[in-house]
Structure formats: structure tokens, C-alpha cells
Automatic annotation (TrEMBL):
Residues 117-239 form the TonB-dependent receptor plug domain. InterPro entries: Beta-barrel_TonB (IPR000531), Beta-barrel_TonB_sf (IPR036942), CarboxyPept-like_regulatory (IPR008969), Plug_dom (IPR012910), Plug_dom_sf (IPR037066), TonB-dep_rcpt-like (IPR039426). Keywords: Cell outer membrane, Membrane, Receptor, Signal, TonB box, Transmembrane, Transmembrane beta strand, Transport. It is a multi-pass membrane protein. This is Ferric enterobactin receptor. GO terms for cellular component: cell outer membrane. It comes from Flavobacterium hercynium. Belongs to the TonB-dependent receptor family. It comes from the Bacteria. Residues 1-22 form the signal peptide. SUPFAM superfamilies: Carboxypeptidase regulatory domain-like, Porins. Its main location: membrane. The lineage of its organism: Bacteria, Pseudomonadati, Bacteroidota, Flavobacteriia, Flavobacteriales. It is found in: Cell outer membrane.
Amino acid sequence: MRKKLKIAITAIFTLSSTLFFAQSHEIKGTIISDNGNPLEFATILVKGTQTSTTSDALGKFTITASNNTPTLIVSLFGYQTKEVVAKDPVIEVQLLFESNSLDEIVVVGSRNPNKSKLETAVPVDVVNLAKIRNTSPQTTTNDILTYLIPSFNSNRQSSADGTEHIDPASLRGLGPDQVLVLVNGKRRHTTSLVNYQNTVGNGSVGTDLSAIPASAIKRIEVLRDGAAAQYGSDAIAGVINLVLKDNAGLEANATYGSTSRNDGQTTNINLNYGSKIGNNGGFINVTAEFNDRQKTNRSKNHNLIIFDQSANNNYFAYDFADDPAQSRQFDDNLLAQNGLKRDDFNFQIGDAKIQNIQGFFNAAIPLNDQIEFYASGGVSHRTGTGYGFRRLPSETESVVASLFPFGFQPELNSVVTDLSSSFGFKFKFGEWKLDLSNTIGQNKFVYDVSNTNNFSLGDNSPTDFKAGNHSFLQNTVNADASRLYKDIFNGLNVAFGAEYRFEKYKIVPGEEASYIDGGAQSFPGFSPLNEVDKNRNSVGVYADVEADITEKFLVGVAGRYEDYSDFGNTINGKLSARYKILDNLSVRGAVSTGFRAPSLHQQYFNNIGTDVVDGQILNSGIFRNDSEVAQQLGIPKLKEETSRNYSFGIMYSPTKQLHITADYYHIRIDNRIILTGNLGNDAFGEPVPELRDLFANYGVQTGRFFTNAINTTTNGLDVVIDYDVNVGKGKMNFSLLYNYNDNKVDDQLNNIPALFAGQEDVYYGPQERSLIETNTPKHKGTFAVNYSLDKWNFLLRNTYFGQVVRDGFPFGGIQKHDGKVVTDMTVAYKLTPKIQVALGANNLFDIFPDRQIYENSYYNVFQYAPVQMGTTGAYYFGRLSFTL
């Protein structure tokens, strides 16, 4: 009887504990590395729920699940994600080293859904932005890529009208419009802004990467190879694909920083929240970001115009050179009596003031096992204030003395609005996958000019002007189908599809006072004569086949046909291959043709602006190719750029932790579209009467045109080395990135009108040539060390920006700006598993480009040219990050 009672009691307790355990199953465990060390901050998620926790400093965790045998998903940056079925209440999970995430599946470079960046036949970089952003000294996508992608360059411009507000960027030294930008694999629209202020990418139209908040981006894939045959127009230099976040949870960041000169204060606040939808992989992820960057001033002296009472209380302007003692000539009391202060006489040369407010979302919802709906998009609202050249009181043809007795420095105030939306459906039909989508985007750039005058209106001139706006809209419809045949060869992937794209470009005039009779100084408004409302459409079809002929030999073939309503059609192809010599040694290469259609902006942009031409401030016009003046001068109609790309590379991994890639590339571009020099003077800067008379009919002294004037050749080498090693209980990563890039413009120009025979140096002169050949570094390298230990993370990075040469900007001599090394450093500490603080610096040692030579300055004001690393100097920041 006692034995039966004991069995019954045992059974009751067993059943009760089982029922209780089923209702509330607490699991305890330890997360360790492959060498047995405990791993802190690993994320443990109960699969199919939003229940999660993180491991502590000893790798310990406790989590509760309602299921008797729940599946746990364990993840940690630098280690392979692992799924574990928790059959016991106490478990141990070992994570394997991930080797820099180099085996991460990529979207660009291959349409095979199973290819990693080390298995593609062309070079692809992957920047895992979501994992590095909290410790990066940079906050914008442009700046981050500049320091992490060897052949990517971008720096801020000064006194460059709209280009101050949207930074031009280049890949492999080519133009901003020769790299294609995708978001989640879908074509992103370009800006409505034409770069025409003799900056990098002069005459081009790029994509504004900063319109997408970096806090919304999961990773960035950079395909460094010509890909027009795969993705269409613009992909001559390569493709940048921004993959948006799809995670669950909350992340908040706040960053504040300032330069060593106590300007350029930057405030960045962003929130990212994601939530799972259902149990089949659905999600929604939203981001909001606010970024405020104050102006910087890098003029030679902040007070360059001297108040002089010696001549009947008149005010004279002159440069007091390098003698700071002369600033005592200011009589602050006398200035105050006249309602003035020293700042009224400043030259402002530096970064523009920019404020961004942005929101973005990314979502996917499986409707059933065969259909998934997805969508993404966002809005960016940017305001900015930049500065034109200062008008001195002595410039009596520019300054209305009654309005500005001491001269003035015009301000260009911009409002840039960027909207985008993409949605579609993914279908599964057996082994086939079908993707139908529509992507639309618009960029609008509104100009207001203040602190200036229209000289022709005299005392009645306003000092603030509505100068008009331009906008660009793009809508793209895609249908893509693909299938992986696992049993043909060692895998055959077939993809094909079609695309329809509609584009619309508009220029809207400003108020009459902004453009009449010469217009507002610095930036005359768009007039009714500049008004544009043009559109076009294009249709494209492609096929892309990639086969693993054997386990060692991969071959890819792609072809694309596109037909444009405004300039015609084109066919392009690509052949690529990769061969494994050994398991850890491969060679790869590709040959392709490419094209870039002339943008609507290049065909129809036109305006009148104030420019420095051969040392004089003149009104200069940019005229359409279909204009009357273009026909009178014999300017030819625009046609597409064509290219031939060749690449060859090696991939070598002597150990699991060490990976080396080196890729040589050769790019030949024919009929490249450029913006001519200012036509109206001869090669010695003297007016050409017949040209001046012709341009006078259009209210200017000189004129510029878009034309297919040049052929270029680019040769280069990219080297990427990554090495991971365990150091004690910590992890250390070493990375070395190097790019050599050489751009050459052919001596012989294309299609020179007879009127300019012998005037090649005016039509496309040394200044324009240097922007392509020598204005981006020929050598650029980065060596970085990242060390993480317990709650600490340390980053030390040195970036070498090689020599650049500027020829005659805006007039004057040839100057070499020597190469410089910029040092970044960040120290981050986890206060708790959810809160991290970081302190750091970009350009820790306050390195600047070489000072400009006198003859390349404007009234000796330009102390530094915006080359290489820019003119910000040291920037120090603090950041607080919170995750939940």
C-alpha cells in the first residue's frame, strides 16, 4: 500500500511539474565561442515569437517559453547564427566564427540566390552598416562609404550653388551618374540637380545617397564592375545596392559632435523600430532620423574687410594678408554706432548649413506559401544655407550701395524634398520565382536667394528672391523571373525580365525680380525662357544565365536590350567567369559592354548664373542642345555614352580568418558627356568679339553646353584584405583596403564645331580635364584595427588620400595637393546589454589639404580647396545608443 501511495504521489508531482513546465518553460543556458570562451551580448530569440534576451558577461542567459521544446535562435555579430531545440532546461550553445561575414549572400553581382560575395565572378563589397554604425565616426551614407570602400570618393563642396547641398560621389574615379544605385535591388531615382560648378562630376547628375537615412540601412553591397548588361543604364562603374533593415526590436541613437574650430556642430537623432508580422517571416521596420549640421568657415581670415574712417567715413575693402595685428584697425565702438559688427564683414567659405528630417519603412507580408507582398519607401526633407562669392563695395556694377554700403555675401537657401515608394509581389510557381514591382521616386530642389540684390533694379531691388525650382520624377515597372536548376551541371541559374521606365524633368521659373535684367547676384533665378517640362520612356529586356560547370568552374552570360523614346536603342552583353585553382585560391574575370543614356537634365537644363571666368565675374549661360544658340554654334545633339569593361582578379584565403582579394580593371568610355568650358574668350582669356556679340543676345557674356566631347580610359587596382584573430578573451579584426585609379582623357576631342577649331583648350580646357584626370586621388588606402573585449570596443583607422592636382580653379596656376593621412578613433563601452556610449573622432589630428596658392584663390580668401578629405578638419563626437 505504501509503495502504491509513493508511486501515486510521484506521478502527481511529475504530472503537475510537467503541466507547469508546459505552461511556463524556463530555460537557462550559456553561450560560448568555438574556443570555449563565454560570449556576451548574444541575442537569444524564441522562434515564432518576439520573446528574446541577451547573454551576460559570463555568457549566461535565462528565457521563458510556453512550448515544452522551443526552438531558440542565437545570434551574435561575427558568429554564425544557430538554431537550437531546447529539450533540457539547462543548455550550452556554441557559436562558430563567421569570418567577417564574407560568406554573406549578396543581391548584386549574381542573380543566383545562393551566391556569397566570395563566390561571385566579380568583386562585391559588403558593408554591414547595421552592425558598425554605432561605432562609426561618420553618420551619413556618403561619408561612411568614403572610408570603407577603397574606390569610392565623396567630399563636400563650397561656394558651389546647389552642389553644396547634395554631395557628388564617384566610384573608380568616374562620374556620379556612371554608378547605378539600387534600394532592395530596385532602381533608385537620381536627383534633379546638375553639377555645373566645376566640381568633381562636373556636368553630371548623381543619386543623393544622403536622402536615405543610414539608420534605415541593414547593409550596403557595392558591385565594383560594369553591369549595364545586367541592370541597365548608368551601371558603367558599378552598382551600389542599399538593403533596408528587416529586424525586430527598437534601436535609438543620439550623436553630437563639433569640429576643433568650434563650428560644424552636428546633431543626429534616429529611431528604428521593427516588428514581426505573423509566424511566416513577415515584418515591418520603420525609421525616423533628424540630422542638423551647422556651417563651417575655412576662409583665410574671418575678418577680411577693414572698416576705414580715413576718407569721409567711407568703407573700403582690402585684404590684410597674414598680419593678424591689423585686425586692430576695426573700431568696434564705431561699428556698433553704425549698427554693425565684425561678422558683417566676414567671408564665409566652408561647408553649408544642412538640416535633414527623414522617415523610411520596409515591410514584407507573406499572403500564403506562394505569394509575398513587399513594400518600402520614405521621405527626406532637407533645408540648407550656402554662400556665394562676396561682393565688395568696390564692385560698383554688382552692389547697390544704398542697400549694401559695405558689400554683401549672397546666401543660397535650398529646400530639397525627396519622395520614394516601391511595392510588389513575389510568386513561387514550383521551382520558378516571379517578382512584379513598381518603384516611383521624385526629387524637388527649390532655390531661395537672400542677402543679395538685383543691380538693375537699383534702390527698389529686393534683398530676398524666390529663384524657382527643378524636379525629376522616375517610375519603373519591373517583371523578373528566375529558376535554379540544381541538377544541370553543378547548378544552373536562369533569370530574365523586362522593365518599363518613365521619367519627367521640370524647371519652374522664379519671381520676376530674381531673373530680370541680369537677375539676383550670385544665383539669378530661372526665367520663363528656362522653363522645362519634358518626359521620356524606355523599355528594356534582359537575360542572365549563370552556371557552375563543375565544382571549380563558374561561367555567367548576360545580355540586355533597351529602347529610349528620345535617343534610340542599344544592346549590351557581359561574360564573366570564376575558377577555383585550389579550395582557397580562385581567379575571376569579366568582360562587358555598357552604356549610359544622356539624362533629361543634360538634354534640357539651362540657366544663367554668375561665374568667375578667367579672373572676372561674368554672367554665363548654360544652353540646351536644341536651343537656337547651340544650332548657330554647331553644337551636336547628345547621344549615349558607350563603354567596354575588363576585369581580372584573385581570391585567396590561406586560413579561415584571412581573406585576400585583388582585382584589376580597365574601363574605356567613348562619347562621354561633359559640360564645356565657358565659350566667349580665347585661350588667353581675351574676349572673342563675334562670340560675345552672339551671347549678348541672350543676356550673358559666355556660354556652356553639354556635348559628347571626350573619350576616357580608366585603369585601376582594388585590394581588400581582412584578418580576424582571437586575442585572449577578445576579438581583433585587421583590414587593409587599397585602390589605385588612373583616369586619362584622350588628346583628340570629338565633334568639335568648326567655329572652335584651334580653340580646344577653351572648348574643353585644362581645368575641365583636371576634374576627371587628377581631381580624385590616384592612390587611396585604409588600414583599420577593431578590437572588442567584454563590454569594450576600440576602432583605430588610418586613411591615406593620395595627391590630387587642380588646374586653374577658378583661374590661375597648377597646384599639387600632397597626399594626407586621416586618423579616425572610437572607444565604445556597453553600460548595460542595451545601452552603449561611444566617444571618438574623425580626422583626430586635424589634417587639412595643402593651402591654395594665391593665384587660385578669390581675393586671397580660399585658404583650402575642398579636395581629398575636405576642409572640416578634426571632428569630435559622442554617441549614446539604446537597443531593446
